[in-house]
Amino acid sequence: MKSNFAALCLFLLAALALSRFANAQEPDTDVAKILKDAEEQSRKMNLQMPNLKEQLAEIEKDEANEKTALQKQLNAPGPIALPALTPALTQFTPAGPATRKIIDEQVRIIVTGTSPLTPAELGDAWEAAKDDKMSFGRSNNSINDTKTVIINLQPQDTALGEVRLEATRSPKEKITRVTITSPLPKPEVD
Question: Which distant-in-sequence residues (6+ apart) come within 8 Å of 142 by Cβ?
């Protein structure tokens, strides 16, 4: 029983050290001390301590590979356009052409702009464009009288893509800020 408790404590110390070590931007003397203490305790109990430095190096290598793949996808040549399933918005003025941007570790196509319509009217227009072969989600939010409508459309055939509309208007504004995004498929990591 005592050895199980000691092993559990050792494991928790190692997990704590690894999580703090993985999130650190600079070398942390506390992490080094925790690792050293954990190694000493494991030697006293004749337990094999996992090599956290090797595991951390592997995690960093995987993250670097993912970042490289995303950057390659972001800079890939070719046309940039929202999927064909994107409903048209009346009275929408784009702020520029569609662009690619990395958001939440995924490359997305983004179009931003404005509309004189309210977020609810824009949401209703997109909701009217859906059909039976699409999954649909709508969120109507109001925080301090700032209205936001978020709509996600995704066809059952996921190869056709998905689109998201986010329309926001504060009480003092006469226009609605609109962002339309569509994720690109995750790139393959070598």
Answer: 148
Domain segments of the chain as ranges: 2-74, 93-183
Kindly report the number of other CB atoms within 10 A of residue 176's CB atom. 24
Give residue-wise pLDDT tens across range 45-64. 877 766 777 888 888 888 88
Alpha helices in 90-179 (DSSP H): 119-129
Please give the full DSSP string across 69-100, using - where no structure is assigned.
Answer: HHHHHHT--S-----TTPPP-TT-EESSS-EE
In single-letter form, the type of residue at position 6 comes to A
pTM tops 0.90: no
Query: Considering Cα of 174, then 171, then 177, then 149, what sign does the dihedral take?
Result: negative
Q: What is the sign, positive or negative, of the torsion defined by CA atoms of 92, 93, 98, 103?
A: negative
Residue with tokens 């408790």: 5
86 CB-contact burial (10 Å; exposed 0-12 / middle 13-18 / buried 19+): buried
Q: What would the pLDDT profile of 114-126 be if each residue is shown by its tens digit?
A: 999 999 999 898 8
8-state DSSP, 116: S
What's the whole-number average pLDDT of the chain? Answer: 80
